[in-house]
Amino acid sequence: xxxxxxxxxxxxxxxxxxxxxxxxxxxxxxxxxxxxxxxxxxxxxxxxxxxxxxxxxxxxxxxxxxxxxxxxxxxxxxxxxxxxxxxxxxxxxxxxxxxxxxxxxxxxxxxxxxxxxxxxxxxxxxxxxxxxxxxxxxxxxxxxxxxxxxxxxxxxxxxxxxxxxxxxxxxxxxxxxxxxxxxxxxxxxxxxxxxxxxxxxxxxxxxxxxxxxxxxxxxxxxxxxxxxxxxxxxxxxxxxxxxxxxxxxxxxxxxxxxxxx
Length: 261
Description:
Strand content: 35-45%
Mean pLDDT: 81
Number of domains: 3
Distance between the termini: 47 Å
Number of helices: 8
Low-confidence stretches: 257-261
Largest sheet: 5 strands, antiparallel
Number of strands: 10
Order of helices and strands: EHEEHHEEHEEEHEEHHH
Shape: globular
Helix content: 25-40%
């Protein structure tokens, strides 16, 4: 059986926090899942996608064993592109998140990261797939990607000579959006109300979290968030197995809200 892995050449496992390691494992599996769905159109089963076979010391080495169904996908993901390569439209968002994890870890710990393939029958015979160095990261530049997006938030300001609509996306994040005079007048009707806006975004992609540079509103409408139980009813056909493990749905969401407060 073929396996794939990643080596952080300058750090040991004790240097890598549990949260960073957990995110890396989660994002690797998500990337395998999303690339498989992108290439085949099928949704893989929840179980048996990828298994972590070992974490080795000296340099931190993560080895993964995958079922035959996902080996081709893992081989493609295993070739980590250089940060400046134009790969953004060639991979799923989940895979781009995984690569940003690698870039951030390489930069933060000043460590090269190597990807490799191996055979379970000859685990010491490694075939290098790619290597990313801190120098590659330091040369990385930001890229601006234009895409259609839908945002949810609250209208907090409207006005200006060149009409702008201020949308509060969260308690700490607001975005000043470009709008036509007609859409600005419509947004004024929803002042201090929740809205859904659709439009064209310019997103800055760099080593940190992607951020919206500009957003041009093409459509705005009032939006009323559904109660959690109604959302669950909508999601039931897609996550039936997971929901069946929760005894009391309302109590589950109540406890989640208490943890966030």
